[in-house]
């Protein structure tokens, strides 16, 4: 899921292109005492910034932090990493958007040995889905710091009015409940979700997995026209076409879909858990007091929601200060820091923190329960794992739009599969 960030202030901000390698009389074998860290504008970063003095006091290192908006961050990485610059030591990156590109090009250092070096830090504590997304060809290249899962948002009051005593546990039950609630409440859609060709791909993915499909098979071949995929496309598109808002547009991202839900115009909504405060904050939502959460409903293959890291920390392979860079990552992803961030509303990737009552103390109980239920079966990607992610999403997202608009979803899936396989072949 793409986020838009506003440029924030930074702590010891370094000029975007003006950083220079540290040298002089410092002990080069031990690494520079100045650690250059580049992070995205995010609440996670804001929380870490506040705790930085603790890290600097513990280690004797000085953190030189560059904090940038998402687009600026990408621009800087394009310039510096392509040039093989060692001016960045620690880098915050998006595993599912640019992770394969960075790993394939050798931009990310191999952290496998480091993740095994500290039993107390416990790499085994990190959830399997996010770990899979930060691993490339059996090498750990990043540590997940922020996670997202797809869950079911719903209106408790509308279900009660329709005589439905519990949220749907299966996709078939979701369809039936959406129809029943919509029929009982004229002007209220039974279901809403993202409809844009690229925006919908991530949320559609959980439907795809729960029907037993995926974007590619174990051999890397396109499978978006498998029987399971065709069923998933038809089901997702059909829900919106038949039970969605009237005259629904086919370019909705999460802000538009969320607005329909929070304005009281839809009964059910599947979306990332990380956006829940938009639905529960009375200042943003007209239905804040009646919002409930449930695990993603099960399809023929079970309930298989995505469980992905939206951001991770990696070490620049060109850095000459990799040991100290790892010290920062180890500290920033420790159980203590993960718990602090999670209590502040940033979902982390540590199993122990989710199991700690303090780790879920600031979340609605039913949301915490939904996350706990779906984590064991979570899938570690919510889009095709390719280098040119945007282009791939355009291809595999077309059948979603076609299904919503009443076109032949199966034929569209066949066409998309041919185009996607050509795309995959071009990336080899």
From TrEMBL:
Pfam families: SBP_bac_1. The lineage of its organism: Bacteria, Bacillati, Actinomycetota, Actinomycetes, Micrococcales. It comes from the Bacteria. InterPro entries: Bact_solute-bd_prot1, SBP. This is ABC transporter substrate-binding protein. It comes from Intrasporangium oryzae NRRL B-24470. PANTHER family: ARABINOSE-BINDING PROTEIN-RELATED, DIACETYLCHITOBIOSE BINDING PROTEIN DASA. Residues 1-21 form the signal peptide. Keywords: Signal.
